[in-house]
Specification:
By secondary structure, this protein is mainly α. It contains five helices and no strands.
């Protein structure tokens, strides 16, 4: 496959793979497993089977990903969570954001205040 045939996600992943060569094998295994899980979940969604994914597993994955992002944020990193290649609709983002805020007992006012105080806008 030539460089021009790679999607942005594939190119980003290949660069991430290159950066991973100096990391321990367990980190590479984790990334490989995460890539496989993401592909499997996208397959379930495409097949109309998202409702069959266990809620408890979804909560565990969501909690882990939120913690990873927060840890990166605390370290000064601001990774882009979604890009055009991810094909996530604005509605899906709003539904998920609303559910996360409700689960955390947060109101939109508190989000606005936090963004103002922390200069994260």
């Amino acid at each position: 496959m030539s460089l021009s045939e790679l999607t942005l996600s594939e190119l980003t992943l290949s660069r991430a793979d290159e950066a991973m060569t100096d990391r321990p094998a367990d980190a590479r295994d984790l990334i490989d497993s995460a890539e496989q899980l993401a592909a499997s979940l996208n397959g379930w969604i495409a097949a109309g089977q998202a409702g069959a994914f266990p809620d408890q597993m979804m909560r565990q994955l969501m909690a882990a990903l939120v913690k990873v992002y927060a840890a990166k944020f605390a370290q000064g990193q601001r990774p882009v969570l979604l890009d055009a290649e991810s094909e996530v609709s604005a509605t899906a983002v709003l539904v998920t954001t609303s559910a996360l805020m409700k689960a955390s007992n947060l109101e939109i006012f508190e989000l606005g205040m936090w963004q103002s105080w922390s200069a994260t806008r």
